[in-house]
Write a structure and sequence with these properties.
The chain is of the alpha+beta class. 17% of the residues lie in helices and 37% in strands. A hairpin with a 5-residue loop joins strand 4 and strand 5.
């Protein structure tokens, strides 16, 4: 029993000592931080102690060689420099960091037993300037071209982003190859091109956590300009006249073609020979003194090594309009208002059809004839009205002899009496019309 009591006392004493040790360790908490640094720059390691009781602080490298013991540097490496030393901190800088400096550095506090904290140094290595290649220098519209962008010597592996002009592209694949902690990255992009892509830059942009400066980021770019060939796009326009084409006019057509390589132009008249008086100067076609025999379809063809295309112009020549009669008719003998005929403007023709928007042939002549007939009828009516008014003002004189002897009456009363008395002789009335 005595022996059991002594053993129990011993265990209690050990637990008490351990508790005191734990309390002391907690009171002297040793801390540090991991460090991420770009190759060639400066890394700083800080060993910090809370409530230090003058215990010794030292810093060891990954090989557990002492770099600093208190403020003394046993390791003969001038890249390590003391930044700060006190009872609570040992701070050391490492300049011109390289990959060989990576690893776990040990902050050690000489207590019983010693305390340790680990600071991991991670070195970032920026990638080299990328290169870009294409499997075709010149590509035809609708075809595919494959671009390859490569960069090497980075840690960690770099990311490659593709752009066409200002548009970011997502359809790419990347491969990574590690060699002595460094990565080589290759990215491929397959692009189907159109004529709108001609002259645009295709850019591979390398992104890496070691590169933050904007100018440095611009240096991590490589570009390749697209050289796209495509068949011509043709358009025929009317330079003159700006309206219906009539006999005697001059017609001038202009043909524009956009293609790569530069297309060759030619003019033809479908189903018929080109008029002998036609003047052709590459993109222009001129027909002077138009007549109805020039009616037809005129085509401009453009062709290059990629293909050909065309645009047509349908010519329809109209008659020259008949000169209209004076639009104002005035009758001076009567106060008749002026009559004016208004002619509506002719609509412009469409681009490729000279008949579009014009009046029906002969409609102008019918309108003129109708107007002339209306004026003639109106003039006849006015003449009849004038004659009627004239005869109304000059009525004839009537002479009546109601009774015999009226002419011999001595005075007017006697004549009236004789006239009244003679009303029964109505069969002898005579009327003289002058």
């Amino acid at each position: 029993m005595a022996m059991l009591g002594a053993a129990g006392s011993y265990h209690l004493l050990a637990l008490a000592v351990w508790a005191l040790f734990i309390a002391k360790v907690d009171a002297q908490n040793l801390v540090t931080d991991d460090v991420v640094v770009v190759e060639g720059e400066v890394a700083t390691i800080s060993c910090r102690v809370k409530n230090n009781d003058d215990s010794v602080i030292q810093l060891l490298n990954p090989s557990r060689q002492t770099i600093y013991f208190r403020e003394v540097r046993p390791l003969k490496d001038n890249r390590f420099q003391l930044v700060n030393f006190s009872s609570s901190e040992l701070r050391v800088s490492l300049s011109n960091v390289s990959l060989v400096d990576e690893g776990k550095y040990v902050c050690q506090l000489y207590t019983d037993p010693p305390q340790e904290a680990f600071a991991t140094i991670t070195v970032l290595v920026p990638p080299e300037t990328p290169t870009i290649d294409a499997d075709k220098d010149v590509v035809n519209e609708g075809e595919e071209v494959e671009f390859t962008c490569s960069t090497s010597g980075s840690k960690p592996a770099a990311d490659i982003k593709w752009l066409k002009g200002d548009q970011e592209l997502q359809e790419s694949t990347s491969n990574f190859e590690e060699e002595e902690k460094l990565f080589n990255v290759t990215s491929k992009l397959v692009l189907r091109v159109s004529r709108l892509d001609d002259g645009l830059p295709v850019t591979c942009q390398v992104e890496h956590p070691a590169v933050k400066d904007l100018q440095a980021m611009k240096d991590l770019q490589a570009q390749r300009y697209l050289d796209v060939q495509y068949k011509p796009l043709v358009q025929v326009t009317v330079s003159y006249p700006q309206g219906p084409t009539r006999e005697g006019d001059t017609l001038e057509l202009t043909c524009t073609a956009n293609g790569k390589p530069q297309p060759t132009l030619s003019w033809q008249r479908l189903d018929e020979e080109m008029p002998e008086r036609a003047i052709i100067s590459v993109e222009n076609l001129v027909l002077e003194s138009l007549n109805k025999s020039d009616n037809g379809t005129y085509r401009c063809r453009a062709f290059n090594d990629i293909g050909e295309s065309y645009d047509d112009y349908l010519l329809y020549v109209y008659d020259v309009p008949t000169t209209p009669l004076p639009s104002t008719t005035t009758i001076t003998s009567t106060n008749i208002p002026t009559i004016t005929e208004a002619t509506s403007p002719t609509a412009e023709p469409s681009t490729h059809d000279s008949r579009a928007g014009t009046e029906v042939p002969g409609s102008v002549d019918h309108a003129v004839i109708g107007g002339v007939v209306a004026v003639v009828v109106f003039a006849i009516l006015c003449l009849l009205i004038v004659l009627g008014r004239y005869f109304a003002r000059h009525k004839g004189t009537y002479f009546t002899h109601e009774a015999k002897g009226a002419d011999d009456a001595a005075d007017a009363d006697t004549a009236i009496i004789n006239a009244e008395g003679g009303q029964n002789n109505s069969d002898e009335k005579k009327e003289y019309f002058i």
